[in-house]
Amino acid sequence: MSVTETRINLLDLDEVRLREFFLSIGEKPFRAEQILKWIYHQGVTDFDQMTNLSKDLRQNLERVAVVEPPKVLSEQVSLDGTTKWLIGFGGGNAVETVFIPEPNRGTLCISSQVGCALNCTFCATGAQGFNRNLSTGEIIGQVWLAARALGHERNGKRRITNVVLMGMGEPLLNFDAVTAALSLLRHDLGFGFAAKRVTLSTAGLVPGIDKLRETIDVALAVSLHAPEDTLRETLVPLNKKYPIKELMRSCADYVSDKHKRTVTFEYTLIDGVNDQPEHARKLVKLLRRLPSKLNLIPFNPFPGTRYRCSPDERIRKFQEIVMAGGLIATVRKTRGDDIDAACGQLAGKVLDRTRRSQMFREHMQGN
Ligand code: SAH
User: Given ligand 1 and candidates 170, 212, 343, 346, which is best to mutate, with the most ligand atoms within 8 Å of its CB?
Assistant: First the structure.
């Protein structure tokens, strides 16, 4: 075994565990605060540069620990400024992380698993299968890398203002690593994001939502995609285990527990599948009593899918009906689709997908 393998990666430890770590090596727990500031405020990974630590401690740390972010394998910048990184963890495992700049904010979309086990029928990540969970360090490491690559603060302003767990994977199936990473995102000594600026998106893992409510304060998004069980089962197979009624109970508990919090429901509009006026009306009935927002996402095609995006006119009509019913509904703008960085297109691919998507586009135009 090499020396590195026996050393602990400090990116894997949230504040509580970092204190425990310092105690375990015979140091004062407050060293955790100094280290956190170096890593997350200064972006320093080299113990030698951590000048407020004694030389002895630095040497000791050198022996037992590392601060080792994952590696950027490639970076692509879209015409609209969206940036996508392929981030590698060794052993051929890689995920995609996306930065979406807007005039008044910058959203970083991070991944929680290599692939995904849930097999939602309209999602490119699902089609790719599941490889493994990411560790806390691999999750928070994506934010650390993006912050460095973007120049975290420009003109005194943060470039990343929001973080969403909407990349590859089902975050609630990797609960411990994800919540530790969330705590580093939230903590003042970490990235210091407010609760409403960190969003976890789930396909609807009910026990996970219930546990999240008791663990950490973040914003919740739920991938709904259908107002009734029979249809939802064909899109999100997890619905067979946790049907809509249970999901709604869990969401209602989530918002009742936190002051002034709403759940965001994501609804991908797929041509002829879930985009009819009757679906919109059923959605109104389902959501009108819950403090919630509806995010309508035009379906993003990917190679091999049988689905198509709803026409603009139908999307507009759908939005009209739900808004007339009293829901707050926005249509998510598709960003970065020229670099396959849009919702459901993330695949952490190692193969040349550029050619595959080009073939796919030609195929679609031919029809
Ligand atoms: N597993 C979590 C995190 C993924 S979030 C979840 O399901 O919420 C990614 C969002 O994009 C989800 O709402 C997902 O349902 C949606 N999505 C997946 N594939 C899509 C596609 N091809 N087009 C548009 N949205 C898609």
Answer: 343
Cβ of 115 less than 6 Å from ligand 1: no
CA distance 274 to 289: 21
Nearest atom of ligand 1 to the alpha carbon of 112: 3
Distance CA 39, CA 42 (A): 6
Judged on CB neighbours under 10 Å (0-12, 13-18, 19+), 27 is middle
pTM for the whole structure: 0.91
CA of 346 to the centre of ligand 1 (A): 10
Q: Are 264 and 221 in contact (CB under 8 A)?
A: yes
Q: What pLDDT digit, counting tens, does each position of 297-341 carry?
A: 999 988 889 999 999 999 999 999 999 999 999 998 877 777 777
Q: Within the chain, where are the H helices?
A: 3-6, 15-24, 31-36, 55-64, 124-128, 136-150, 175-186, 206-215, 229-235, 244-257, 277-287, 312-324, 353-366
Dihedral angle, C-alpha 65, 19, 58, 135, nearest 10 °: 30
Summarize pLDDT for 104-139 with one digit per residue, the tens.
999 999 999 999 999 999 998 878 888 899 999 999
Please choose, from the candidates 263, 275, 267, the residue with its C-alpha nearest in 3D space to the C-alpha of residue 317: 275
Query: What is the rounded distance in angstroms from the CA atom of residue 264 to the CA atom of residue 135?
Result: 26
CA atoms within 13 A on the CB side of 208: 21
